[in-house]
Amino acid sequence: MNKRHWIIILSISIFIFACKKSEIIQEKIETFLGFQKPANFPEPVYNFTANPVTKSVFELGRTLFYEARLSRNNTVSCGSCHIQSSAFTQHGHDVSHGIDDRLGTRNSPPIMNLAWNKAFMWGGGVYDLDLQPIVPITTHEEMDENLDNVLNKLRALPKYTALFKSAFGSEDITTSRFMKALSQFMVMCVSSNSKYDKVMRKEDNASFTQTELDGYNIFKEKCSSCHKEPLFTDGSFRNNGLSLSPVKDQGLYLATLLASDRYKFKVPSLRNLNYTAPFMHDGRFLTIGAVLEHYSGQVQNLENLDPILNQNGKLGINLTETDKTKLLAFLATLNDESFINNRLLAEQ
Amino acid sequence: MKNLSIRITLLAFCSILLLASCSKEDSPAPEFAETNLAPFSVEFDNIVGDRTLSFNNTTTPYVNAKGESFSISMLQYFISNIKVATADGKEYAVKQDSSYFLIQSSDKSTRFAKVRVPEGDYTRLTFTLGVDSLRSTMGIDKRTGVLDPAANGGHDSGGMYWGWNSGYIFFRFEGNSNVISDDVNGDPTGKKQFKYHIGGFGGYSAPTINNIKTITVDLTKAGIAKVRKDRQSNVHLFMDAMKVFNGTNSFKIAEHPNVMFSDYSVNIAKNLTEMFRHDHTEN
To answer: Using a CB-CB distance cutoff of 8 angstroms, which residues of chain A are in contact with residue B203?
Structure first.
């Protein structure tokens, strides 16, 4: 046997080995576990009995989420503004950047742990995840399309009639099926494997460093009344003292017309902040440091300021520089790398 | 002579026929049984003051009580939860799932709300103008037919679903009037368009404006509905779009050319309750 033969044998065996390995990975992806409530999370609020998660519907939902035909000129998908590597936000954009380069007025929030959400959007108005996609599809600055057209475009494609058939048993493409599939993809976007979660679940011998632990204690004292564990939001709408945005966004008021809701926005989760900058409803702060500056020294006493941020005539939250360092260390334990790398949630 | 006798026989025959048909009209109301269903319809005949509705008639525009000329380009509204009642107080509510109708004045075939109610003589008709709050919060499965958010395409082609506010436009009325300014208080596109999109079902969790209106029509004056299996009883209503402007809360188009989800919509919604008038019943 000469050298050439050896090389051939070697490359064949590498090839076989590689095949084996990818088969194992393949198997791992294939065992679809459906929606699973993390042990340290409360019961979800999404109505799973009306839309039980199955592999084929979830996969259809994933395909739809990354389908640019959902927009008028087939250029923008849900995934264009909700990018997995940015924890399903539009990283680097203060306000959303949609069709024909039109700009919206609000920052793209993450598609994350939505099964625990009672209200959607920064300013509410949508209370059922199954009805949410109508908003981006029909919004002028986002996808500028109408639902009827979207469904007709899908009906014309054998790929989709086949996917709907395998998901729902027949080729009919209806509003309800379309929405349920998108919801299944979105509720499966669960982020629950940060260091914080592992510490809480006592997994992998995970433990906080002293700085992280100090930060956690400061957090519990000063932030958790609104950013409630373990989702890091209590789901409420509040005014956290931001100065008015240039467009004077009135937040929840636009959906309720109640004066007491003016300038209130949904309390966002604080998970995955490492990937989701910029921050706040209009993306005004580029770093978490700037957010902490806001809470410690820039809170404005505008209409409906949350009373928690205005105690004994003192605006904001008292934070020393070491407090801030410790808080930052704790907040970093909420980043979940497995979420942004989860193959199941990626465009296939 | 022979001629006359033929005539008399004919006359007699005719009167018998007439009597017979009269007696059909007067047939006693059958026993009221919820399972004994028969066809019944309500017809929404859209008019504007004392004229019929026609679209974009800018040469002979309509004129409201404030003297403003206008033309109409779109008129459509939801009717739901139809109920009937007999003189002796027996009530029947049409099964909810078959009780949602979108009346689109651009499509004459949509002017009938066709339902099934028990055989009986009805003196009162009740319906909802809009989509009730319960249905407005139901899951996507329950939003089929006219309630499908995809129905009618987008807003430009007459869609009635408000995505950002998860609810339906109950009453949509659009047109043009030269009194509308070209600035932000009017129509900045210069098309002099007015748009009234009236909705608001009371909110999912916190109470918000509720513009759902229940309309009750007394049928005793213009003809009760005699619902029987062998015929189509049809209550013919006039729906006077002029009342949008000329109702109790009358207003100037120039002052409120665009009213959608806002506090002012409550005033207009009150006017909408005055739009319906019973003209006659075909039994």
So the answer is: 256
